[in-house]
Amino acid sequence: MWKKYTEETYLDKRLENYAASNYYPFHMPGHKRRLDFLGNPYEIDITEIDGFDNLHEPKDILKLAMDRVSRLYRVNKSFYLINGSTCGILAAVSSSVKRGGKILMARNCHKAVYHAAYLRELKISYLYPPVISEGILGSITPESVERAIKEEPDIEAVLISSPTYDGVVSDIKSIAKIVHQHRILLIVDEAHGAHFGFHPYFPKSSASLGADIVIQSMHKTLPSLTQTALLHICSDRVKKEKVKRFLSVYETSSPSYVLMSGMERCIRLIEREGKVLFDRYAERLSDFYVRSQELKNIKVCMPSQKDGRECFCLDPSKIRIDAKKCGINGRQLYDRFLEQYHLQMEMCSDSYVLAMTSVMDSQEGFDRLFDALYEMDGQEERENLFFSDFYSVRYLYGKTKKCAELFDAWERERRSVKLSDACGLIAADFVNLYPPGIPVLVPGEEISAEITEKLTECIRMGLNVVGIDGKMRIKVVN
Ligand SMILES: Cc1ncc(COP(=O)(O)O)c(C=O)c1O
Predict the structure, then answer these.
(1) Domain check: are 260 and 407 in the same one?
(2) 66: domain CATH number?
(3) Which long-range contacts (CB under 8 A, 24 or more apart) does 335-338 make?
(4) Which of 27, 54, 186, 457 has most Cβ atoms within 10 angstroms of its Cβ?
(5) CB 435 within 8 A of CB 469
(6) Residue with CA at minimum distance from ligand 1 atom 9
(7) Which amino acid residue places its CA nearest to atom 14 of ligand 1?
(8) Please, how many CA atoms are within 13 Å of residue 409, restricted to the half-sphere of its CB?
(9) Which of 264, 294, 318 corresponds to the end of one domain?
(10) Domain count, the chain
(11) Which of 79, 80, 83, 85 to mutate to test the pocket of ligand 1 (most atoms within 8 A of CB)?
(12) Residue 232 located in a structural domain
């Protein structure tokens, strides 16, 4: 039976109503629904007609726009990406490692990196970030990179995510030095760091620290429309023409002029008003962190800029809130923010909630967040037994054993088995915790008893686990 359509089911109506509501966005995109400089999108939605250049062969107005980006980020060359950082990551990996070659990548990379490795049939070696005190994954250390490259001299490129979805930054300068001593390339997925380098309150961009290719999602942390991203070539080691070729493979042949126009407006805004906007933003954020120290039970993680080797540095734009002491787990806290305070958070983990901020956040937004925290903090302290024997699901990422290469395992014959019966079998598909889309299990990895147990717990908690169906079955290699 077809479902009956009513106005309630129309996306445009729902968006219109949402836009008129008082829900405040502590999530991406970074424009926070507060810009209106594009006017009626239909009026400027064109294709590659005369006078408007061609993104895949830019010679005129789009070339000028991208040169402007290179100047702002002080890099050799920048490309607009209209399919998000995803297509930039696919192109960066494809152009840096030959088909069937080997890549060294952080195990906590976004799925786009895995997809690149799959498409190019790459052999994968992993760097495992440590789990730091708050149960989040820490930085990739330069020592671990050096060790891996020495052990496996056939590695052709190194790829790490810095900052991570949680805002953890790695020591890119030291890592780049090591990588270059071995004459290979360093690719940094800086999808969450397009705002880096514009103000001393925030970390420097990998683009200025020695990385060869840097990919940034403008839409995540800058005032730019969803899907807009950048690929920067930062050194002469990179084969520019190869990157261009792969971008033409992975990127749409009909790039939206609405999106590109929005990107240019964003870049111009930063050029013109960046200092004022970032000064104000840094002040609001640091004021928020200072005020949060007053809270007794709820913990707002302080972004002290240098936490030691395991966490080289934290991006203060990401606010991590932990209410364990109030007896509230991540999911419950997230729901309370939404239902009681109309504050939409970016994500919840098992134990904490993540709020994403940007230059577009208002003082009112920060006040609403603080007031909600203050009120919840004052509520009666309860013991939540749930936490006594549960540790962060992030520990899962370092606990898997690779038994087959991704490109091989993902293509093999498969069957579904109950998660509880999967112990010792080999995963045939990805299992992801969303967000952030970092695979807990990669095809070709062994499913351990611990993994089955923790995944069951995550599902019970209401976390979004993709790759386990409604009947608690998982796909395994035949
Ligand atoms: C670390 C990381 N890299 C890459 C991506 C992909 O970025 P995009 O959505 O712009 O394609 C994401 C998306 O969430 C991400 O979190």
Answers:
(1) no
(2) 3.40.640.10
(3) 336/372, 336/376, 337/26, 337/372, 338/23
(4) 186
(5) no
(6) 84
(7) 436
(8) 26
(9) 264
(10) 2
(11) 85
(12) yes
* pLDDT score for 390: 44
Q: What is the CATH number of the domain that holds 444?
A: 3.90.100.10
* 350 within some domain: no
Residue 389's pLDDT band, with cuts at 50, 70 and 90, is very low
Residues 477, 416 contacting (CB under 8 angstroms) = no
Q: Is residue 348 part of a domain?
A: no
Task: Flag whether 300 is in a domain.
Answer: no
Which of helix, strand or coil describes residue 56?
Answer: coil
Work out whether the CA dihedral 323, 292, 319, 369 comes out positive or negative: positive
Q: What are phi and psi of 244, to 5 degrees?
A: -60, -45
Mutate to test the pocket of ligand 1, among 192, 247, 438 (most ligand atoms within 8 A of CB): 192
Q: Of how many residues is the chain composed?
A: 478
Spatial contact of 228 and 263, defined as CB atoms under 8 Å apart: yes
With bands split at pLDDT 50, 70 and 90, how would you rate the model's confidence at 306? low
* 208: its two tokens: 């200025």
Domain boundary, last residue among 235, 264, 293 = 264
SS3 for 101?
coil
Give the closest residue to 80 by CA, choosing from 284, 245, 217: 217
Residue type, position 263, single letter: M
Cα 290 to ligand 1 centroid, rounded to whole Å? 30
Domain of residue 440: give its range: 399-477
Say yes or no: CB of residue 229 within 6 Å of ligand 1.
yes
Query: Ligand 1: which of 217, 226, 228 to mutate, judged by most atoms within 8 Å of the beta carbon?
Result: 217
Rounded Cα–Cα distance for residues 53 and 55 (Å): 7
From the list 110, 121, 59, the residue with the least C-alpha distance to 88 is: 110
184, 158 Cβ separation under 8 angstroms:
yes
Under DSSP, the state recorded for 140 is P
The amino acid present at 35, given as its one-letter code, is L
pLDDT digits 0-9 by tens, 6-34: 888 899 999 999 999 999 999 999 999 99
Prediction pTM value: 0.95
Q: 85 in ligand 1 pocket by Cβ < 6 Å?
A: yes
Does residue 163 have a cis peptide bond before it, meaning omega lies within 30 degrees of 0?
A: yes
Q: Which two tokens stand for residue 368?
A: 């609403």
Beta carbon of 169 within 6 Å of any ligand 1 atom: no
Give distance in angstroms: CA of 330 to centre of ligand 1: 22
Rounded to the nearest whole angstrom, what is the distance from the C-alpha of residue 115 to the centroid of ligand 1? 12
CA distance 376 to 272: 40
